[in-house]
């Protein structure tokens, strides 16, 4: 996905990074972090875990108080359950990039 959205996606730890950072070039300071990990139970059950974290400057929150930025993490979890990991990630990346691509 980094090749498809190079201006939006960065992997701070390189290709093996556990965190993907999403930034819109025209909205400095507004950052979304996607953190993923994989847990394996003693029984061998693999459980991927993907979380969305937001970093929005206080000034932006004051300018847009009615926006549901605070509920972004919960909305992302709903997308994961409905669309699956790849489509949910693609959706949030397109939203951050303000892309109209399908």
TrEMBL record:
Any Pfam family the entry gives: CENP-P
GO-annotated biological processes: CENP-A containing chromatin assembly
Single GO cellular component term: nucleus
Classification via InterPro entries: CENP-P (IPR027801)
Superkingdom of the source species: Eukaryota
The protein's name: Centromere protein P
Origin species: Amphilophus citrinellus
């Amino acid at each position: 996905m980094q090749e498809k959205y190079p201006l939006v996606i960065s992997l701070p730890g390189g290709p093996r990074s556990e965190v993907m950072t999403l930034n819109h070039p025209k909205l400095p300071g507004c950052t979304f972090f996607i953190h993923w990990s994989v847990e394996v139970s003693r029984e061998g059950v693999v459980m991927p875990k993907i979380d969305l974290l937001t970093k929005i400057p206080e000034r932006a929150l004051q300018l847009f108080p009615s926006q549901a930025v605070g509920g972004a993490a919960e909305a992302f979890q709903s997308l994961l359950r409905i669309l699956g990991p790849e489509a949910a990630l693609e959706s949030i990346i397109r939203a951050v990039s303000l892309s109209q691509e399908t």
